[in-house]
Amino acid sequence: MKQEQETPIAPVAGATLLTAIDFYFDFSSPYGYLASEQIDALAARFGRQVNWHPVLLGAAFKITGAALPVRQPLKSEYFLRDFARSARYQAVPFVQPMNFPLSTQHAARAFLWLHEQDAIAAKGLAHAIFRAYFTAGRDIDNIDTVLDIASALGIPRAPLAEALAAVSLKERLRHEMDRALARGVFGSPFFIVDGEGFWGADRLPQLERWLAEGGF
Amino acid sequence: MKQEQETPIAPVAGATLLTAIDFYFDFSSPYGYLASEQIDALAARFGRQVNWHPVLLGAAFKITGAALPVRQPLKSEYFLRDFARSARYQAVPFVQPMNFPLSTQHAARAFLWLHEQDAIAAKGLAHAIFRAYFTAGRDIDNIDTVLDIASALGIPRAPLAEALAAVSLKERLRHEMDRALARGVFGSPFFIVDGEGFWGADRLPQLERWLAEGGF
């Protein structure tokens, strides 16, 4: 207990000023997965919350003109090595999926649907989807796989299946994507804290210093 | 002195097995510059030498299909912030050049020419060129600027000017580029140590652990 302020009139004033960290990721992104295993604990050390935002990188790639690294000559072999090495470096379990990359709209929509009801449960689902893909190679592009993963967490299957088929949830994801692009998100993982963007799991050390020092 | 081998028949055997680190960079690459200020000291802590290899990223980009980040929508603003922030993070002096990016064939050729005569002096020239560009914004695409920078280091101007105009040095750089591409180099900085490739100044922590543990 080192709090030595003389007059703690508003002892939580500082805490309430700490805005949440926005964490954008694609469920098909290995570096997004690595970040997902670290960001909440890192943020908590500095009293920060993290808002998770699944995005579809394809939409951003259309704007930037980027191609998927694994589809590019020279880069593909490197990236497959770097995914696994970066996971070992961070001590995060990782097995390269055979079906890679894949489309993640069902996974992203399931997250959004659950998030409206229970933000904590939605993070649990996100972890389960990421781990099913990057440790067990499950085909999370398949809507039934997403439903199976959710069911295993006790999430009612029928309402989620119904929501995934509805137009409203598709429009919700499109709206989320538009907002992300408007904020400059072009890759995964992408973090925004106090207006400052950080791209890549390898920017977590800079993000950490930013939180520790209030910018640098 | 913790060496407790009973029969040190070949006490320097381990040391002689340590191969050099290959460090590939483009003189127009901010992250290449940041790495250039760190790699030799890092390597020296593990008894490693570093062989410096200037490359022209344009040739690699033609193969990978990559576009320069600063020419891509969404990414350009981010990268300009990240260059400067990463420099502050590494405590390396940095001023974003106005003329950016630029062509670096004269700088690369000057390095190769000097390297054939004096590898140490060539590293000194590389540092001087990088710093002239990334701390003083000098136009290192200009052949006279390269000659000025070299002259300031005591390198005879006339022989270098003659070499830079000769076909043989141009072919030498082309040959170096072919070798780099054949080894999978597609970006700057790019490191190869014991057959393992590391791309980016942000991979120096992984490279460091690799050196410390002999792979991981």
UniProtKB/TrEMBL annotation, chains A, B:
It is an enzyme of class 5 (isomerase). Its EC number is 5.99.1.4. InterPro entries: DSBA-like_thioredoxin_dom (IPR001853), GST_Kappa/NadH (IPR051924), HCCAis_GSTk (IPR014440), NahD-like (IPR044087), Thioredoxin-like_sf (IPR036249). Keywords: Isomerase. The keyword Isomerase applies. It comes from the Bacteria. Pfam families: DSBA (PF01323). Residues 21-210 form the DSBA-like thioredoxin domain. GO terms for molecular function: isomerase activity. It catalyses: 2-hydroxychromene-2-carboxylate = (3E)-4-(2-hydroxyphenyl)-2-oxobut-3-enoate. Belongs to the GST superfamily. NadH family. This is 2-hydroxychromene-2-carboxylate isomerase. It comes from Uliginosibacterium silvisoli.
